[in-house]
Amino acid sequence: MKQLANKQILLGITGSIAAYKACELVRLLRDSGSDVRVVMTQAATEFVSPLTFQALSQNPVHRTLLDETAEAAMGHIELARWADAVVIAPASADSIARLAQGRADDLLGAVCLATPAPVAIAPAMNQQMWLDTATQENIALLQKRGLHILGPATGDQACGDVGPGRMLEPQIIREQIAGLFETGALAGLTVVITAGPTHEPIDPVRFISNYSSGRMGYALAEAVVEAGARCILISGPTHLPIPYKVQRVDVQTAQQMHTAVMEEMSNCNIFIAAAAVADYRPAETSTQKIKKDQQQLRLELVRNPDILQDVTGSHPEVFAVGFAAESGSVEHYATQKLSQKKLRIIIANDISRTDIGFDSPDNEVVVYWQGGSKQLPKASKPQIARQLAAMIADHYNESQ
Ligand SMILES: Cc1cc2nc3c(=O)[nH]c(=O)nc-3n(C[C@H](O)[C@H](O)[C@H](O)COP(=O)(O)O)c2cc1C
Fold it and tell me: Which of 160, 180, 200 is the last residue of a domain?
């Protein structure tokens, strides 16, 4: 299940007899490539030992909110930010009532309020408890607030009753969690993304380049595919694997990237320029390796084509998104680039910070458009990419 590869799933377990089925769910999620962290309510620990979930998830199990040691390390806000999705399975009637009230008096409740990630719950309870008006009203309220309700199934129950309220089987929950990442916001659209650095050859063994790892562009490619787009990723040299369902075109130089991008523009709806394209290239490339027989060596550099400028100039119908990697006056340069290059959106990050940006797993960006901006707080590049894909989809749809 490719959608779950490298996803960070926070699994909440509450006090239901179905807690034993969550053991299988943890195993299935890990088999799909997800990293799983478990949060248990006090009642849940009466049903299955935390040690079981620790062994299955290969991560410590989180149980208490008011815990000094935990708050010094992976505290409740960090856990909430860490999650790509929060899934409560099983979700007891009581935990559903607390969620509906927006309570934060236990770790799971606090995490659900503090997370920007989608929250899904798989109810599990006796059929009379499920059908009770209180539960039904709580569920309707949570649904209205955008929580995803998975199930429940109908059938034989642990108490001997038959009816609705059984927790869905773990493999079905896994499929529905995978579905959380498929938003469909970019369905039917073609998105062309550039990523990585370019290599500008000096001679057969040397080149000019930069520190770009390509991670942000690759994460965006994954995110737009999850959002339903067809994605063409025009990539400079990186060590990253081709993301699922992405069509990758490999290039080395800025000129090759320019040609490859222009070839795709007539069938492109959205162009995202995430590559760190070299502004200059050596005026000449030596066909022989340059020997070190001179004390000084002068390289003459010439300007490379400006890919983004050429896209907006020749294809104004394409929704063009740029990146501004700046080391100072970020807002000034980003907004200047937005209007000069006639972009619809520009995503700015401060590369003078060592904890984000180039070659780092995390990023923190400010998104600018004509008349507005939004800050996306520090998060992993895949998390930032999913938020960007959603914002780009919203702005694209508004522009049509
Ligand atoms: C043996 C047993 C099984 C239970 N099974 C369920 C259940 O499947 N669903 C449910 O909503 N509550 C069930 N309960 C009641 C909950 O455990 C109880 O409401 C508890 O307060 C839930 O706590 P929590 O939501 O903090 O995990 C069960 C209680 C017992 C004693």
Answer: 180
Q: 146, 180, 214: which is the final residue of a domain?
A: 180
Ligand 1 binding pocket, CB closer than 6 Å = 14-18, 41, 43-44, 92-95, 124-125, 129
* Catalytic residue (choose from 112, 159, 231, 268): 159
Question: Residue 185 domain-assigned?
Answer: no
The reply to whether 360 falls in a domain is yes
73-123 confidence digits (pLDDT tens):
668 888 999 999 999 999 999 999 999 999 999 999 999 999 989 999 999
Q: Which residues pair with 301 in a beta bridge?
A: 282
Residue 167, token pair as written in the block:
């927790």
**Ligand 1 atom closest to Cα of 129?**
11
Give pTM, 2 decimals: 0.82
Q: Which stretches of the chain are assigned E, i.e. beta strand?
A: 8-13, 35-40, 85-91, 119-123, 148-149, 153-156, 162-166, 190-195, 200-203, 206-208, 230-235, 246-250, 270-273, 280-282, 301-303, 319-326, 345-350, 362-369, 372-380
Domain count, the chain: 2
- Residue 159 appears among annotated catalytic residues: yes
**Which ligand 1 atom is nearest residue 44's CA?**
27
Range of the structural domain that residue 12 is part of: 2-180
